[in-house]
């Protein structure tokens, strides 16, 4: 169950805001109250802290540590429900305007006039004022309910400022409860928008100012919205809709549907009595998806229009860029502890919606991991977009991520550009090489993460986004923080979930499985690997990790002449990141491998041919015979392994690679190593 902390200054505010949040939050979310007036000692593990204001946040921060969880600083606004009710109060009814002092009562009176509520029949009231209040049945007060005469039941408290729409949207998005198209959030707010809009129609234009907030919300929907009353008179229409239907008129509110909607099919759909219906239609070559539902006791019809094509185009683009999450958990190969743990963590994190930071050397599978998280999460049907920051300049990063509008800057595309955050809406964005971004981009990114909204370059329109962020780096971000190259606050915001990937050299036991898997997926026939080849591949340090191993395999499979691969099929030494120094001291030797893997069958690494020649060498040394290619070839003539000098050379190289013999120039050139004697001992 999600737990959120609501942090306020006073108990009164806490109650008002808690009640407001409860309307939107399901029972699945528990709200813990923290009231500064009562003293706050610590928080108790909430995933999200909502502060009633910036000032309060700063005050709390100065007293105690705020844990590095998601924080939302609320914006508060006049309680529209109350205002809406005031707008509709009849002008003949006498109303008491109650405050604690005469002066402050006058101030409120002036404020009400200023916002256009001048039709109300108000009388000022405050403690000590001589007034017969018996005839009053209604009172308005800015939070001073205690001074309202007892007999008055209808009290409008305009002091209880509530969270504005954007704050609620942020909270819902953080908790994954936001549904823009037809869910409760939009419906509930649309109802309010309508109420206010209607209030405006009957009262004063100045109240528009109060409405800006809501206007911003409807205009920030990605969907076109149109609302009309039962006489088909338009009450609300947003910019997106105007664009979709190519309406040039500046103001269409007040017009009838017939005046605005010229497509017959769409018009009759809109005028149809039937509730909650859906239509797909083609207009000027573009496909649209249209939904209709009724709100406010069936008084208002709301129609939402989305372009299907746009959606398709975005998806096609996504595919084109190859930014589809290709991998699942099963694509992560290996049985080492590290891989087993990794899979368990991925499974757990995929169930949450936390941001995740993946740290690991190049080629260790960061993208693979991000992709598996996405595919196992509830977002798997939505896009998975990957951005690699290392290749992009600051300007490019910003325009890629946030998009821009027409004419935003010189060189901007005429049509503007949809940012990746918007394209990935509902899905996951994978920010690769996050350690490479500048402080400037970091602060923009931080804002996106905090506010969960973006503003495309050159636009003043705020777009809410619902995107999970999985970031990756091969750098030590802690170190970068110390060097002041990376923002600590961004680090913690990204690192809500954390995965450290192990380099391949620390989990060499995964190499055989990786090789098998790669051979199976890349080769059309069954390919085998000689023991000595396998041993060399396991001994190598793979500084380029799985990617380097994969490249090596791809090369060998491509140039192979037969399906049984051996050491001779290895690419040239220069192919490798590090030199393939086969007798290197620090490489894992046959001996150390068996010390750490006693249960392995040693025959895996030395074949019968090699075994025959190794035994021959040891015997010849014992008999003090000279060991050379010539003598070994001659010796083999009477055995099952008749080999030419050239063939003996190949076998000697393999035995050298296996650390079974040393190959020096000179008379005592070929000498068995301690490994060889141990191997022979084991074989007895
Ligand atoms: N455990 C694994 N199982 C199977 N394939 C793997 C594994 N780890 C990595 N790979 C493969 O190795 C290649 C590199 O992986 P990936 O691109 O995910 O690494 P990365 O850490 O994101 O690399 P970079 O930091 O260089 O971008 C990919 O082809 C991936 O499929």
UniProtKB/TrEMBL annotation:
<feature type="domain" description="Sigma-54 factor interaction">
    <location>
        <begin position="332"/>
        <end position="558"/>
    </location>
</feature>
<protein>
    <submittedName>
        <fullName>Sigma 54-interacting transcriptional regulator</fullName>
    </submittedName>
</protein>
<keyword id="KW-0547">Nucleotide-binding</keyword>
<dbReference type="Pfam" id="PF25601">
    <property type="entry name" value="AAA_lid_14"/>
</dbReference>
<dbReference type="InterPro" id="IPR058031">
    <property type="entry name" value="AAA_lid_NorR"/>
</dbReference>
<dbReference type="Pfam" id="PF00158">
    <property type="entry name" value="Sigma54_activat"/>
</dbReference>
<keyword id="KW-0067">ATP-binding</keyword>
<dbReference type="InterPro" id="IPR000014">
    <property type="entry name" value="PAS"/>
</dbReference>
<feature type="domain" description="PAS">
    <location>
        <begin position="210"/>
        <end position="286"/>
    </location>
</feature>
<dbReference type="InterPro" id="IPR027417">
    <property type="entry name" value="P-loop_NTPase"/>
</dbReference>
<dbReference type="InterPro" id="IPR002078">
    <property type="entry name" value="Sigma_54_int"/>
</dbReference>
<dbReference type="InterPro" id="IPR003593">
    <property type="entry name" value="AAA+_ATPase"/>
</dbReference>
<dbReference type="InterPro" id="IPR025943">
    <property type="entry name" value="Sigma_54_int_dom_ATP-bd_2"/>
</dbReference>
């Amino acid at each position: 169950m999600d737990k959120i902390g609501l942090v306020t200054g006073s108990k009164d505010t806490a109650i008002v805001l808690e009640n407001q949040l409860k309307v939107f939050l399901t029972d699945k979310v528990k709200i813990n109250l923290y009231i500064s007036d009562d003293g706050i000692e610590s928080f108790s593990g909430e995933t999200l802290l909502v502060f009633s204001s910036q000032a309060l946040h700063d005050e709390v921060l100065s007293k105690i540590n705020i844990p590095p969880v998601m924080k939302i600083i609320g914006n508060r606004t006049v309680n529209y429900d109350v205002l809406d009710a005031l707008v509709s109060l009849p002008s003949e009814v006498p109303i008491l305007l109650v405050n604690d002092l005469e002066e402050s009562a006058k101030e409120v009176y002036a404020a009400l006039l200023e916002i256009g509520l001048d039709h109300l029949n108000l009388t000022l009231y405050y403690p000590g004022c001589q007034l017969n209040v018996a005839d009053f049945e209604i009172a308005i007060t800015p939070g001073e309910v205690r001074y309202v005469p007892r007999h008055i039941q209808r009290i409008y408290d305009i002091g209880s400022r509530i969270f504005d729409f954007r704050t609620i949207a942020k909270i819902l998005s953080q908790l994954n409860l936001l549904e823009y198209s037809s869910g409760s959030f939009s419906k509930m707010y649309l109802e309010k928008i309508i109420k206010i809009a209607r209030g405006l129609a009957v009262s004063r234009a100045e109240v528009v100012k109060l409405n800006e907030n809501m206007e911003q919300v409807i205009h920030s929907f990605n969907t076109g919205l149109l609302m009309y009353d039962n006489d088909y008179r338009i009450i609300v229409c947003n910019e997106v809709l105007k664009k979709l239907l190519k309406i040039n008129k500046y103001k269409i509110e007040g017009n009838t549907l017939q005046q605005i909607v010229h497509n017959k099919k769409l018009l009759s759909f809109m005028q149809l009595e039937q509730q909650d219906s859906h239509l797909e239609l083609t207009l000027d070559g573009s496909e649209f998806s249209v939904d209709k539902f009724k709100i406010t006791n069936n008084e208002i019809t709301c129609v939402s229009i989305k372009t299907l094509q746009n959606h398709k185009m975005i998806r096609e683009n996504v595919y084109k860029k190859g930014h589809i999450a290709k991998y699942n958990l099963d694509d992560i190969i290996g049985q080492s502890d590290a891989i087993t743990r990794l899979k368990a963590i991925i499974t757990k994190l995929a169930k949450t919606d936390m941001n995740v930071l993946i740290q690991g050397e190049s080629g260790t599978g960061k993208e693979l991991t991000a992709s598996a998280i996405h595919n196992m999460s509830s977002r798997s049907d939505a896009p998975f977009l990957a951005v690699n920051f290392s290749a992009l300049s600051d300007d490019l990063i910003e325009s890629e991520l946030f998009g821009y509008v027409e004419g935003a800057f010189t060189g901007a595309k005429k049509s503007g550009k949809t940012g990746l955050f918007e394209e990935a809406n509902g899905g996951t964005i994978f920010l690769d090489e996050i350690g490479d971004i500048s402080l400037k981009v970091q602060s923009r990114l931080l804002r996106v993460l905090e506010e969960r909204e973006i503003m495309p370059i050159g636009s003043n329109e705020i777009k809410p986004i619902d995107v999970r962020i999985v970031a990756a780096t091969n750098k030590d971000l802690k170190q970068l923080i110390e060097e002041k190259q990376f923002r600590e606050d961004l680090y913690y915001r990204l690192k809500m979930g954390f995965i450290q990937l192990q380099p391949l050299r620390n989990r060499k036991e995964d190499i055989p499985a990786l090789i098998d898997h790669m051979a199976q997926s890349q080769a059309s026939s069954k390919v085998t690997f000689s023991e000595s080849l396998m041993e060399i591949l396991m001994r190598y340090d793979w500084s380029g990790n799985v990617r380097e191993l994969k490249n090596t395999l791809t090369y060998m499979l491509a140039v192979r002449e037969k399906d049984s691969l051996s050491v001779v099929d290895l690419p040239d030494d220069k192919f490798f990141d590090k030199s393939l120094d086969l007798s290197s001291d620090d490489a894992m030797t046959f001996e150390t491998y068996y010390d750490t893997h006693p249960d392995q069958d040693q025959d895996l690494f030395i074949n019968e041919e090699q075994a025959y020649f190794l035994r021959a060498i040891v015997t010849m040394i014992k008999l003090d015979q000279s060991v050379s290619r010539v003598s070994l070839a001659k010796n083999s003539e009477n055995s099952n392994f008749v080999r030419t000098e050239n063939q003996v050379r190949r076998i000697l190289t393999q035995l050298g690679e296996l650390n079974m013999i040393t190959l020096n120039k000179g008379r005592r050139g070929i000498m068995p190593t301690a490994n060889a004697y141990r191997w022979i001992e084991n074989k007895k």
